[in-house]
Amino acid sequence: MEERNHVNGMLVQLFGNIMDWEEKALITDEFSDITNNDMHIIDAIGIDQMKNMSAIAKQLGVTVGTLTIAINNLLKKGYVERTRGQRDKRVVYISLSEKGKKAYRHHEEFHRDMVDRMLSCLDEEETQAIIKGLKALCQFMNEAMKEQEKKRKS
């Protein structure tokens, strides 16, 4: 029981610390006009690709309506571009502008540095143990979220 409480405390603290650190690291003078949430939308859009609004919303776990508000703000600030479908003009595709790609790379570098720092003090066996634990946590979270969605729909 004590180990469980210790792990829970570390996970809660880690999540909070990552969110705080990420916000301070990502929202620099250059990117002061966007939020941490905006940066995650930029990340979900991805670099060198176009995605429709539904795909981005699904990836982020938000409604298309919620995403539309954020995309409109990112469009005004020059981070994203909107394109209508060639065959179906009702379909809207979103891609990153050059400014958005720069923000994407900045976000990617943050995460690469964070993971590199964590793994740098672990040997191969410890790294594999961390990966196994994180996979189990991700699987649990995915299953819990699916179950929650089922309950919400019924």
Structural class, please? mainly alpha
Continuous helix count: 6
End-to-end separation in angstroms reads: 35 Å
| Overall 3D form | globular
Give, in order, the helices and strands: HHEHHEEHH
- Using DSSP, what is the number of strands? 3
Q: Quaternary state, please?
A: single chain
Beta-strand percentage? 5-15%
Residue-averaged pLDDT: 89
Low-confidence stretches: none
**Largest sheet properties:** 3 strands, antiparallel
How is the largest sheet built, in terms of strand order?
A: 1-3-2
Task: Give a concise summary.
The chain is mainly alpha-helical and 154 residues long. It contains six helices and three strands.
Overview of this structure, please?
- With 154 residues, this protein is mainly alpha-helical.
- It has a 3-stranded antiparallel beta sheet.
- Helix 3 (53-60) crosses helix 4.
- The protein is globular.
- The relative contact order is 0.09.
- Strand 2 and strand 3 (92-96) form a beta hairpin.
- The longest helix has 30 residues, at 124-153.
- It has 6 helices and 3 strands.
Strand and helix layout:
Blueprint (H helix, E strand, L loop, with lengths): L1 H25 L9 H10 L5 E2 H8 L3 H13 L3 E5 L7 E5 L1 H22 L4 H30 L1
Antiparallel strand pairs: 1-3, 2-3
Helix pairs in contact: 2-5, 3-4
